[in-house]
Amino acid sequence: MNRFGIQVELRNIPPLDREFFPMMRFNQAFLATARKPVAIAVERDRGQVAVCHTFIHGTDERYEADCYYMDRLVKCLLWMKGGWKIYVSGDERVGTYLKETYSLTGARAFDADFMADVYERPFEVVICDQVPEEKDVSQAIGRHIDGCRIGFDAGGSDRKVSAVVDGETVFSEEVVWHPKITADPQYHYDGIVAAFKSAAEHMPRVDAVGVSSAGVFINDRTMVASLFLKVPKDQFDAKVKDIYIRAVKDTFGDIPYAVCNDGDVSALAGAMSLEDNNVLGIAMGTSEAVGYVDGKGNITGWLNELAFMPVDAAADAMVDEWSGDIGCGVKYFSQDGVIKLAPRAGIELDESLSPAEKLKVVQSLMAQDDPRAAAVYQSIGVYLGHTLAYYHQLYGCKHVLLLGRVMSGKGGDIILDTCKQVLADEYPELNGKMIPALPDEKFRRVGQSMAAASLPALER
Questions:
Q1: Would you say 173 and 160 are in contact if contact means Cβ atoms under 8 Å apart?
Q2: Are 138 and 294 in contact (CB under 8 A)?
Q3: By percentage, how much of the chain surpasses pLDDT 90?
């Protein structure tokens, strides 16, 4: 396969997507002949800066390849770590290209606008002689089991809450709700408070509250979250950004609390069940939700929104409707990936069905050992094998926990087995360095809401 003159040969190709071009393999082939040093840095909250020193060709013949490589690299850093300001040094022409591309009128306007909303700062790209130095501060959070705690997990279709006393779950419940289709933020607030009060009834007091929720959170504030998709922007700014903080304080007064992305809390639950660190959690469901606990056992504060990170360098890769970009993780590691591949396997899906219902059709066929469904899951397994090698390069993760509806049942077993085969064949250097696995019974006992309950430390 070839893109912008960069040639790569693969031994493992998805049976239903012969044009798949793993991003990491493109990067490796590109860098094999690149000699001109360049650097990019991404600045986010609290002056934290992520830096990447790399190389391009710097020639007219490879200008398009240079621009593509740098665009994908910037996008990777943005959605992995987050940021509102990009610094570029080493090549003014490519810097100018990035400045135009990541503007509110450029091809990556979605990315620029999203990051501006998250960090409440105008997004900008700066061409400079030298990028700032790396500055990263991870946060020691979680694993606190003392006292009477509430753990709340806000999902798109249900909300879960646990009452935990000195590390033992004394009560838990799961309630169906519909946050994604409700415009009135009072509905969300009332549901959160009702869950808190339900758990509180089963403890003598409430010492702390931990919240796990889909979305991007900065200093416990909700900056972007699909749960509140229908809430008008003015109402979001006024009543949603501090919704979890208000719910805790209004219900229990001034007690410790913490709000984290659900992907990070999944990774924390994995670290707690494994009794180890350096854990990447990937939940394949409605989207691709990712969290990370670093080698010190800390949550990094990075975005980890890998649903928007490019994983496929193919020119005709599928478009993500939200961002308008192609080749992003959401179309490979979510129910969208299954729905994309099913027709190629000869599985006709009724267009009147919801995405979740379409996934269930394929899962039902897989339960009957239908070879068409097996080809869908084998293809996702090949995607995953190549992409986990890329994620390992970025994170250095030791453990990868694979979660979510797509990974359930026989299909999940095929994905995992195929993924391991691809890693062993194409990336033998990772043998023993990264362990992908499905959650075990111990992980299920820890659970998302119990891990959330462990987030805040009690004040002494």
A1: yes
A2: yes
A3: 83
